[in-house]
Design a protein that fits this description.
heterodimer; A: mainly alpha; two-stranded antiparallel ribbon; 2 strands; B: alpha/beta; globular
Chain lengths: 204, 330
């Protein structure tokens, strides 16, 4: 069973990985966007960790909805509303339960990813975070090893954005010139899914 | 790269503190990042709220004041503001006559302003939105985020601002803002990349002897790269591209806009070429504005915006405006 502590560990690990990779994310963003993805997510996750410490929510749903609200209030750009919606909608889908099964979490995350796709109007293949998130959420089927499989699926999804031509977001302005670069949103999504797998394995 | 900053993290709040000191006629809420007219809310008048990433100064904070914006929300550099800022701004400037959000078409700006509009309406504020999308360099289709908002933002904010100042109701202010956007088209070129404070190195490499055609205002590369052209050749290319997209059938406003690092000497010279092309094409120019208005940090380059105007739009354009970045009349 997954409790609030598990989700706190996920978000703390997400912040660590984003801190480590912020330069890389910004580098990816400078190729096809405006060179701020890493610093924006760092600002957001720093605020998330501060809010979690301040309010100490006690259920998985409350942890994720609070984190989502913080991202919306501090990140800006497209990634604030999109990542904020991902966590908030996943959290809402988990309800008030004190513990949830991996299967329930997978279902909730799929609802969160669907909300992100709807908000951004993006489908798989548009070269966005959905290309990493959707296969990751699909892999979370409640079986043992599902978290590791999700990490692999997200990393693969992010890599597969390299040859794509962007159809959403700022990279879409470049048309064909966006091909040949990994999508920064898919890359950061892969990090957050990796943090989930790390958390499940007790890595922090 | 040398920049006149302390640390990247405080660039925006440092600038807002300096702006507050220079412009006592504005209310600058540094902590919550809202720039407002000192006399807001103005009784019986529709309020205009705009905003977007920082790095485009004087857009938008520099366009706050009588005759233009009621409030502006600056985000981080090249990053849209968050809904909290916009809701706070709307609540502070709404007199009960409603608020018009002026939003440039970028995914982040659109998402955050949409969320803000919902939250503001929950608080009982009447909100209308207009999307600025004038950049002809972007193919507008279902397969892109759509045309970017660039230079036409200034025309929309000025003309709609004058309509609000004159007492027009929200529906009318919204309608004229939409009409200005529909009548305006822009095209931009870059002669150098930008350097954002957070990254500290140029966003893209532009070798000497080359330029980027069809750029936006965020340092993203443009539509294509070509060998360097003369001012005359750039004007021919840019103006023709704009006119082909929307051939004018009447007089126009022209904005020759610097991207931040191109001196007025070059911009005026470029304007001479722009006016030549328009004359050759038989387009009557009603008014021209030349300067750095919708900038992209330290980018060298320029954009041209052409907006067909009728009598009403021209009267509103000429109406007095008192802001840090645009000031005439009275």
């Amino acid at each position: 069973m997954l409790d609030a502590e598990f989700f706190l560990r996920w978000l703390a690990r997400s912040k660590d990985l984003i801190d480590q990779q912020a330069g890389h994310l910004t580098e990816l963003d400078s190729a096809i966007g405006d060179a701020d993805h890493g610093s924006n997510l760092q600002r957001g996750f720093t605020a998330v960790l501060a809010a979690l410490e301040r309010d100490s929510p006690t259920t998985p749903g409350a942890v994720l909805t609070l984190a989502g609200r913080q991202l919306i209030s501090t990140v800006g750009g497209a990634s604030g509303p999109l990542y904020g919606t991902l966590l908030r909608r996943t959290g809402k889908a988990l309800g008030d339960a004190v513990e949830v099964t991996p299967q329930q979490f997978g279902d909730a995350l799929r609802a969160g990813v669907a909300a992100v796709a709807q908000l951004g109007g993006a489908q798989p293949g548009d070269k966005t975070m959905v290309d990493a998130l959707e296969p990751a959420a699909a892999a979370l089927d409640g079986t043992s090893g599902a978290f590791a499989a999700a990490r692999e699926a997200a990393a693969k999804g992010a890599r597969e954005t390299v040859p794509m031509v962007a159809r959403k977001g700022r990279a879409s302005y470049l048309g064909e010139r966006s091909a040949g670069h990994e999508d920064p949103g898919a890359a950061s999504s892969a990090l957050i899914v990796a943090a989930l797998a790390d958390g499940a394995e007790g890595i922090r | 790269m040398r920049m006149l900053i302390n640390v990247p993290e405080t660039v925006v709040s440092d600038a807002l503190r300096g702006m507050a000191a220079a412009h006592p006629e504005l209310q600058v809420d540094v902590e919550n990042r809202v720039v407002m007219r000192r006399d807001a809310p103005v009784a019986g008048r529709v309020a205009l709220v705009s905003g977007g990433g920082s790095g485009h100064e004087p857009l938008h904070g520099g366009f706050v004041g009588p005759g233009m914006l009621s409030a502006a929300c600056p985000g981080e550099v090249f990053t849209s503001p968050v809904p909290d800022q916009m809701v706070r701004a709307a609540a502070a400037v709404d007199s009960g006559a409603g608020v018009l959000f002026i939003v440039k078409n970028y995914t982040g700006d659109v998402l955050n302003f949409d969320m803000a509009a919902e939250l503001a309406e929950d608080e009982g504020i009447r909100v209308a939105k207009v999307l600025v999308n004038d950049d002809v360099a972007v193919v507008d289709s279902l397969f892109t985020a759509g045309r970017r908002g660039t230079g036409a933002t200034l025309f929309v904010e000025k003309i709609a601002g004058a309509a609000a100042e004159a007492g027009a109701p929200l529906e009318e202010v919204e309608a004229i803002a939409r009409r200005v956007n529909d009548s305006a088209r822009s095209f931009g070129v870059a002669l150098s990349s930008v350097t954002t404070p957070a990254k500290g190195t140029p966003t893209f490499d532009l070798p000497p002897g080359e330029l980027e055609l069809g750029i936006g205002i965020h340092g993203e590369p443009g539509r294509e790269r070509r060998p360097m052209m003369t001012s005359r050749e750039i004007a021919d290319f840019a103006v023709h591209t704009v006119l082909e997209d929307r051939p004018p059938t009447g007089p126009v406003l022209v904005l020759v806009n610097g991207m931040g690092a191109t001196p007025l000497l070059e911009l005026y010279g470029f304007n001479a070429e722009v006016q030549r092309v328009l004359t050759e094409r038989g387009v009557a120019v009603a008014r021209t504005l030349v300067g750095n208005y919708v900038t992209s940090l330290d980018m060298a380059g320029c954009s041209v915006t052409i907006c067909q105007v009728d009598e009403q739009m021209l009267t509103l354009w000429d109406a007095p405006v008192q802001t840090p970045g645009l000031r005439w009349g009275r």
